[in-house]
Specification:
Strands 1, 2, 3, 4 and 5 form a 5-stranded antiparallel β-sheet that branches. It is built from no helices and 5 strands. It is 0% helix and 51% strand. It has one domain: ApaG domain (Immunoglobulin-like, Sandwich). The chain is mostly beta strands and 88 residues long.
């Protein structure tokens, strides 16, 4: 967490299915929002994507601007996507 407020402006997702087909998604905000977050504040949202396989993964970057005008990137570590009951 930072010491000043920051606004999430845009995102870039890299979505990979189990066949190694990669799709990149870029866009403004998250599900129609460009949240302005105060230090320590959180923003949660739910979204989805379509995969040609039952499993895959996503990683990405949020592009943000701090209240003082400094631009920065927040890297999102890779996480697993799977249909219910397909992972043990």
């Amino acid at each position: 967490t930072g010491q000043i407020a920051a606004q999430l402006i845009s995102r870039h997702w890299i979505i990979t299915d189990a066949s190694n087909h990669v799709e990149q998604v870029r866009g403004l905000g998250l599900v129609g929002h460009q949240p302005l977050l105060q230090p320590g504040e959180q923003f949660e949202y739910t979204s989805g994507t379509s995969l040609a396989t039952p499993q895959g993964s996503m990683t990405g970057t949020y592009f943000c601007v701090a209240e003082d005008g400094e631009q920065f990137e927040a890297k999102i570590p890779e996480f697993v996507l799977s249909l219910p009951r397909t992972l043990h």
